Amino acid sequence: MSARQQQVLDAAIEVLGSRGMRNLTHRAVDDRAGLPHGSTSNLFRTREALVAGVLGRLQEREKAGWASLAGQGLPDREAFVTALSQMVRQLTGDGRVITLARHALFVEASHNPALQAQIAVARHELEAWAVPFVGALGSQDPAADLRIILSFVDGLMVNQLASPVPGFDPAPAIAMLLRGML
């Protein structure tokens, strides 16, 4: 991906996460990126291509976050809770626009088979990496437990984004889930 494509897609993520799917237009992305009108359209001819590009860019950024966690090696339960909690706080704090963009795309995917397929590929990639982590924590069914953990974390994020709690600390809830699961 070229630097210009990254610039455009990062601007599109900002538009999507701060203004919603209805406001994701080529012109709005051009304005956000500080580019001449028509620049986004030259790279992503249709809105569908732009949306697919945004999803791909979000997935790249998400992979980088998970790779950072993976760089810490197979953690013990306490380290996993700490790392996951930090990630949740970041994605509902400074990274809230990224999380809102991701959720907007997931809602869009409910009506778009191409986006569903793109999300399924990314989910399989994440599972290939994360299932061994969950297994190392002591799970008897790491694939199923990973799906539960991811769903739980998404729920925590949605609730924090929709109704922010000052001093939000997801660690106790994540620790309780893992105690019950593992």
Provide an overview of this structure.
The structure is a single chain. 77% of the residues lie in helices and 0% in strands. The longest helix is centred in the N-terminal third of the chain and has 24 residues.
Write the layout of secondary structure elements.
Blueprint: H1 3-19, H2 26-33, H3 39-43, H4 47-70, H5 77-92, H6 96-109, H7 113-136, H8 142-162, H9 171-181
Helix pairs in contact: 1-2, 1-4, 1-6, 4-7, 5-8, 5-9, 6-7, 7-8, 8-9
- Strand fraction equals under 5%
Q: Structural class, from helix and strand content?
A: mainly alpha
So how many helices?
9
- Tally of strands: 0
Helical percent range?
over 70%
Whole-angstrom Rg:
18 Å
Rounded average pLDDT: 93
Question: Low-confidence parts lasting 5 or more residues at pLDDT below 50?
Answer: none
What's the assembly state of these chains? single chain
Intertermini distance: 40 Å
**Secondary-structure element series:** HHHHHHHHH
**Main sheet specs:** none
Quick overview of this protein structure:
This protein has nine helices and no strands. It has helices at 3-19, 26-33, 39-43, 47-70, 77-92, 96-109, 113-136, 142-162, 171-181. It starts with a helix and ends with a helix.
List keywords for this structure.
elongated, mainly alpha, 77% helix, 182 residues, single chain
